[in-house]
Amino acid sequence: MKVLVVEDNPELGQSLAALLRQQGFVVDLVERGDAADQLLGQASYDLLLLDLNLPQLSGKALLRRLRERGNTLPVMVLTASDSMDQKVLCLEIGADDYLVKPVDMRELLARMQAIVRRQHPGRENQLRCGSLLLDLRTRQFSVKGEALGLPPRERGVLEALMLAHGASVSKAKLLDTVYGMDEDASEDALELYVHRLRKKLEACDATIMTLRGVGYLLRQKLADDAAGAH
Q: Are strands 2-6 and 47-50 parallel, antiparallel or unpaired?
């Protein structure tokens, strides 16, 4: 899951980004509203954590621009202001949630997970592909009830494939998902992550297919696949 944090306080922004990375999120951090606006036109994110008092372009102005462009990216406002009028205004112009600083990390994570669940209505708290399960509350995978431990980048790749709900995901999209803007994205590394995931899913009836020229697809193995494995 990739998150853009827009916070003009460098110390607070770095601290928040570090805490989110510890939870397995890919995080980009910028301090100015105009820089965030430019970045949102270049990269894709799963969630925007937005301060309101930003230099160059305010958080509310950025939110308005985002919605005027038809961008439905979930936005959570994080601000020091507990003004009810401001909260109502932010929700009216398109914010999905509003939290007042200082923020308790447990509450922030719970609200982020709630927003993700709302993006996948009718699926409750879990996504499934055969015996592979993704718990949207904890972002943890399991196979046949047993926890599947994955390093952050492998988890990011598998999460993106699972959230695609049976649609293919391009290599470019996967690279954008698992690498931050200051990291060197590598297709060779991506192929290695996919190779490792396939090995870890061998005992599972979910498999990652390579679609040449398109990307990757997570699907449940067919009966013919299982028969061919014997």
A: parallel
HEC string for 42-80: CCCCCEEEECCCCCCCCHHHHHHHHHHCCCCCCEEEEEC
The CATH number of the domain covering residues in 126-228: 1.10.10.10
pLDDT at residue 229, rounded to an integer: 46
Contact of 42 with 17, CB cutoff 8 Å: no
What are the domain boundaries of the chain? 2-118, 126-228
Could you give the CA distance from residue 88 to residue 113 in angstroms, rounded to a whole number?
Answer: 22
- Using an 8 Å Cβ cutoff, are 33 and 8 in contact? no
Residue recorded with tokens 């498999």: 207
In this predicted model, what pLDDT tens digit does every residue of 76-124 receive, in sequence order?
999 998 889 999 999 999 999 999 998 898 899 889 888 877 766 555 6
Q: Which CATH architecture best describes the domain 2-118?
A: 3-Layer(aba) Sandwich (3.40)
Tens of pLDDT, residue by residue over 60-74, are: 999 999 999 999 899
Q: CA 190 to CA 196: how far, in whole Å?
A: 10
pTM, two decimals, is 0.75
One fold for both 2-118 and 126-228? no
- Write the CB contacts of 71 (distance below 8 Å, at least 6 apart in sequence): 40
